[in-house]
Structures are given as C-alpha cells and as structure tokens.
Design brief:
The protein is built from seven helices and no strands. The model has no long low-confidence stretch (mean pLDDT about 95). The longest helix has 23 residues. About 50% of the residues are buried. Helix content is about 65%, strand content about 0%.
Amino acid sequence: MILPKIRDPRFVTIRRGGTLTDADHRLLALWAATCAEHVLGLFESVRPMDPRPRRAIEHARAWTRGEVGMMRARAAGGHAMGAARDLSGAARHAAYAAGQAGAVAHVAAHELGAAAYAIKAARAAVPEGESETARRAECEWQRRQLPDAIRELVLDDQRLRNDICWSVFDRQ
C-alpha cells in the first residue's frame, strides 16, 4: 500500500478540487518514469522479451505529451504490474516501479510508488550487506532528478508517506 487513506489535495488536480496543476502533474509523471526507467534493466535482464514495463514507462511519458489518454497510460501501468506477479526480488520491484509510473496519469500520488519500488529494486539487486548503501544511493539519485517546480512537494510527500512506503526514503 503506497497511497494514504486520505488523499492529499496537493496531488489532486485543480479540476477535481485539489491544488495540483496540470503542468506539475506532468512533471510528477516524468519523474516517476525516470525513477522506474533507472532500474528497468533489472527486470529486462530476467525477462528480456516482456515489453510491458518498458511500455508503461513509454506510455507515462506519452501521456505527458498528450499523445495517449489517461486510460491507456493507466492500463499500461496495470500490465507492467502483471509482469511482476510471478517474479521476486529486483525484477519484480522494477516491474512494479514501471507500473506505478504508468498509473501517475490517473492518480498523481503514484509518483512515490514508482520511486519507492525503484529503491526496493536497487536494494534487492545487491548483496544483503550492501543494501543500505544501494538504498541511499538510489534515493539520492532520484532526488537529483527532481525538477525544481515539484522538489518540495515530492520531498514533503516522502516525509509524510515514508512509513507506508517501507521506509525507503531518508528521513529529513
């Protein structure tokens, strides 16, 4: 579970009664796609012929450009999560990261799911004694990718939802 029980209005678009602009929604989707793509190779090394996670990332980006609708991006995200079901470890988490990125078009708060699953993938890809270093490095890498316009929003979201996101984000 990566979504809070009560939706944060900062992640609800203005037209639905929240405060999120369309421009920031697109930035959240692009950042989520970037996070997921960073670990995509962990899935593709196990399932090189399965295009579903890569397709979800592509659809997330296409949605931000207005090339596909929200339903198509969300469906691609669901298919990526389906690719994860019979896997374990890094490959599974990487596919889930892609699925969460695809879902951002529908619910902006999935942006943190993409990041959290990417961190879990990075952590699972290394020997146990190196997992904390991998977690920290991935978290720092993701933060460097954050556009200034959404930086404070995402960092605050990480602080607020860290506990339901397996405590993968550093405490600020």
